[in-house]
Specification:
Elements: H1 10-23, E1 30-33, E2 36-40, E3 45-56, E4 59-71, E5 74-89, E6 97-107, E7 112-123, E8 126-136, E9 141-145, E10 148-150
Antiparallel strand pairs: 1-3, 2-3, 3-4, 4-5, 5-6, 6-7, 7-8, 8-9, 8-10
Amino acid sequence: MKRPLLSLSRPIILCLSAQLANAQASDLPVDLIADQGEYDGATGVATYTGNVVITQGDMKLTGDKVVIHTKEGKITSVESWGSLATFHYVPANEPAVDGRGKYMKYNVPAGVVDIEGDAYVKQAQNDTHGDTLSYNLNNETVTGKRVKMSFLPASS
């Protein structure tokens, strides 16, 4: 069954696209697909449900429900819930990073993705599992609680 494209007015899509692009310091277009969605301009909150997929360049976020919070025209955070919400991110000159969990919150100004519930982050052959994990996109660090890591040391 084909997922319907969320139908929003052009100004809302342009506003959201500009905000996500600004959040990622990129001029790449933002594509969003969801079964349902709504945007409240008064509160600056956009809520999307059902097979949500947001992409911008090499970045991708999925979830059963995604809520985008804005303040003064800029995105402050993106929350995603799902049986497994996921993200895919490609840092400059590094292998791709993939993460998943039951809940994720991306703090845009800080560049941090917090993951809760069966949290998992993988980059190349290195992976980290935990009850909770926090991945910092800026300095590419992972921290967590009740962590299990597997990594391949650099060869000499």
